[in-house]
């Protein structure tokens, strides 16, 4: 699945890692093209979508009431969507999860109205996004400390998030995130968006008149 750099120099394990504490029966492993298997239950009344060493292509994945976790997987031409307004379920829990609990690759995927948020939303974590399109997603309290973002397009309002040029890895050292070739010309930025730790500002395309806020 691509060069080893995007795996962050980690080798994907042959089996579900010990100690992760998730119901292994809910995991989807192997190669799945077309309809996904039935999801399993998760805590808080959510539906578990847990991907481990999975290869997923050309599927439409609705994230309403979902707990998503992806690890050492690859998604091609998939469409992730969420309802317009976040809704708490009967347990008071919102859809949430991680697109990259461990390194996971997304190529030519679309993310529509997905709520990117550290708590009560979805995190990019250590995922890599190549040629993806983000359409009217909600960026609310999201910190992209490890994500690779390459040749992606962002459409809509962006508020309350921070992008990092590098972040700590499992050994405590710093790995440079790959952030280049992204098109933000259709993005409406608020003042509450930050670019930290050497994000390559000149490697992106910005709306006319927008000056990225470098805050660290």
Structure description:
It is a single chain. The protein has 216 residues and is mainly β. It has one domain (26-203). Helices cover 0% and strands 43% of the residues. The strands form five sheets. Strands 1, 2, 3, 5, 6, 8, 9, 12, 13, 17 and 22 form an eleven-stranded mixed β-sheet that branches.
- The general outline is globular
Q: What structural class is derived from the secondary structure elements? A: mainly beta
Spatial separation of the terminal alpha carbons:
34 Å
Compressed to H and E, one letter per element, the order equals EEEEEEEEEEEEEEEEEEEEEEEE
Brief synopsis:
With 216 residues, the chain is mostly beta strands. The chain is built from no helices and 24 strands. Helix content is 0%, strand content 43%.
């Amino acid at each position: 699945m691509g060069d080893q750099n995007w795996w962050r120099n980690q080798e994907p394990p042959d089996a579900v890692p010990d100690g992760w504490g998730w119901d292994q029966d809910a995991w989807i492993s192997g190669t799945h093209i077309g309809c996904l298997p039935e999801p399993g239950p998760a805590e808080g009344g959510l539906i578990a979508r847990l991907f481990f060493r999975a290869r997923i292509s050309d599927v439409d994945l609705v994230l309403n009431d979902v707990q998503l976790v992806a690890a050492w997987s690859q998604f091609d031409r998939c469409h992730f969507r969420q309802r317009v307004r976040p809704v708490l379920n009967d347990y008071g829990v919102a859809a949430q999860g991680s697109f990259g609990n461990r390194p996971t690759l997304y190529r030519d995927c679309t993310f529509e109205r997905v709520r990117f948020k550290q708590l009560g939303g979805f995190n990019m974590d250590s995922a890599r996004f190549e040629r993806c399109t983000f359409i009217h997603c909600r960026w609310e309290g999201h910190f992209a400390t490890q994500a690779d973002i390459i040749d992606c397009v962002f459409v809509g309002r962006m508020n309350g998030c921070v992008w990092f040029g590098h972040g700590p890895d499992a050994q405590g050292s710093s790995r440079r995130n790959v952030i280049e070739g992204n098109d933000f010309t259709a993005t409406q930025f608020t003042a509450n968006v930050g670019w930290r730790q050497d994000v390559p500002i000149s490697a992106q395309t910005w709306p006319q008149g927008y000056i990225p806020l470098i805050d660290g």
